[in-house]
Design brief:
Blueprint lengths: L5 H5 L15 H12 L4 E5 L8 E7 L2 E7 L4 E5 L7 E3 L12 E5 L3 E5 L8 H5 L7 H5 L5 H27 L1
Antiparallel strand pairs: 1-7, 2-3, 2-5, 3-4, 6-7
């Protein structure tokens, strides 16, 4: 490539380029939220995080707060306007005039939610086979991802504590 002079550096390139405004423009960010992210399926959490009836989780999709809870027979999702804690258990069933959001449990127990009131595709169609290569591993048995991780850490912390206690006794 030949050396460039000032005239070469300031002229518009002959190739397509993307403006750096896409990284800093708040207007473009809002357009992306509204036109892209509010219309897609988003995996929000794992169903094992809602093991009991009336357990709930909150999340955010495209800047909108959402709430999902276990009714005892299914997981339902709604827009969330006033619950600030990330998770918990309700005292009674949710009664609201707010329309339900579309919600599906797929691909290893992930809870997928979309803000689109009329989605044109199911989660299976939207993911378009992306999980096929790991479907046997994630769909064969229940994955209690978060609860197993906590149990695993607790088990090894207890073993580590016992080891430290034993070493301290030997040093005395």
């Amino acid at each position: 490539m030949p050396p460039r002079n000032h005239r070469d550096w300031v002229k518009t390139p002959k190739i397509e380029h993307i403006s750096s405004l896409i990284y800093s423009s708040h207007d473009i960010y809002k357009q992306e939220q509204e036109n892209i992210f509010s219309k897609v399926w988003v995996p929000c959490f794992h169903k094992s995080e809602l093991p009991n009836e009336l357990d709930f989780r909150t999340a955010q999709i495209a800047g909108q707060n959402i709430l999902a809870y276990n009714t005892g027979t299914e997981i339902r999702a709604y827009r969330n306007y006033d619950i600030m804690q990330p998770s918990g258990t309700f005292a009674a069933q949710v009664v609201t005039s707010e329309p339900r959001l579309h919600c599906e449990v797929k691909h290893g127990g992930m809870v997928w939610i979309t803000l689109d009131p009329n989605p044109t595709m199911s989660v299976e169609e939207w993911t378009c086979g992306a999980f096929d290569c790991i479907a046997d591993a994630i769909d064969t048995e229940e994955m209690e991802v978060f609860h197993r991780l906590i149990h695993y850490k607790k088990h090894y912390l207890e073993k580590y504590y016992q080891l430290l206690k034993h070493l301290a006794e030997e040093l005395q």
